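name: query_chain
kind: protein
chains: 1
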Amino acid sequence: ASIYYQHEAQEIVQTKKKVVVKTNQGEFTADYVFCALPASQAGNLFIKDMPSLGKELISLKSEGIIILNFGYKENVLPIEGFGYLTPHCARENILGVVFDSSIFRQHNKHPKETRLTVKLKDLGQSEEEAIQIALLSIRRHLKISIQPDVISFKRAFSSIPQYTVGHLERMESLYPEFQQKIPRCYLLGNYRIGLSVDCCIRCSKETVQNWYKNCLTTF
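structure:
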């Protein structure tokens, strides 16, 4: 298989037995297409063939997130567990913390290490600002005052769709119609059936199962 960079998908066209993906650098023809683009980009691709779905996806605003990974050579956690989320009413500067070394012990390289993932809403903070906010927060919440031995910073732009009331119900209603109009194209993403990782995994599994069933009836 090949990976193509700098190819912006502009249109997806269903023919009798194929799907054509038109990009800014040419066209690609396939038996099936699995579209895992963010909601707004996917909506632009299908606004012509299915305006109701296209408008729903284009109108779905997304916000970015900052992800910080802190690594310590010793056990600095006062408690064991999955981690925690901060409620909106608390008006905290972080969204939550995941105790990676507790829930994914098989990835630990040292018996006493601590690995944390701290998530922040992307408000345009610099890397240094985000790190300081996260360190102050875990000092207040977890009483961890020592500096991490390793720090990793990542910024995911427009990665979290902001569902409006009734979005999932509308998607449940629109998607079967989409599959009838463009049966050789499948949509994947955190706008389909839920935001969480388990929802995205479920969406992927169900999509592949549906594709396989369709293959059995087609051939």
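note: Residues 189 and 201 are 10 Å apart (CA to CA).
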